[in-house]
Amino acid sequence: MREYDPTAGGSFTELASYCLLPIIKLLGTDYKAIRFEFFKGKNDVDIYAKAHLSYHGAVATAKTGIGVKSEGQLLISGTNGYILVKSPWWLVKGFEVCYDSPEKNEDFTAPFHGHSMCIEIADFIRNIKEPAKWNFKLSPDDSIAIASLIERFLKERNLESVHQASSVCA
């Protein structure tokens, strides 16, 4: 199966674009730092991975898994609160904006139309950022940023494999 191919497979290459899309659309491409955590299964392929993105005033974590079970929620944290989209977040029915005081929390329910995940996520982002404006397009900068993050992950994953092989041979 493609997702378990040791060269190009893994949970991050298969699923990260879905998780990174709302992060990039909400917080932008100008993140300050990125850190990856992952563990591998057979064939040296990541079966679970996390990407931690730090922004000025916000952080985001994207989690992917092909050999593990995990909650599939979308959580975006900020300095004034966080946005929570409960599982399964890719089938958005609504979301909650949460603050320090639970009585100030806001629930949003909206009709999210469309048949593809991209359209549903785009509607979700539009409803948060500009409710009166239809702005769902994935820009070239968004695509490049997501592809660059996946490429960076692969370099780090492959570098770890080289280090592990070196220590085994030593």
What's the SSE blueprint?
Blueprint: H1 11-27, E1 33-40, E2 46-55, E3 58-65, E4 74-78, E5 82-85, E6 94-98, E7 106-109, H2 117-129, H3 140-169
Antiparallel strand pairs: 1-2, 2-3, 3-4, 4-5, 5-6, 6-7
Protein name: Gfo/Idh/MocA-like oxidoreductase C-terminal domain-containing protein
Write the CATH architecture name.
2-Layer Sandwich
- Compute the number of helices: 3
- The fourth-level CATH homologous superfamily is Dihydrodipicolinate Reductase, domain 2
Query: Tell me, what is the CATH class?
Result: Alpha Beta
Rg is 17 Å
Spatial order of the strands forming the largest sheet: 1-2-3-4-5-6-7
Structural class comes to: alpha+beta
Helical percentage: 25-40%
Can you offer a commentary on this structure?
The protein is globular. It is built from 3 helices and 7 strands. With 170 residues, it is an alpha+beta fold. A 7-stranded antiparallel beta sheet has the order 1-2-3-4-5-6-7, covered by helices on one side. It has one domain: Dihydrodipicolinate Reductase, domain 2, CATH 3.30.360.10. The two termini are 33 Å apart. The longest helix is centred in the C-terminal third of the chain and has 30 residues, at 140-169.
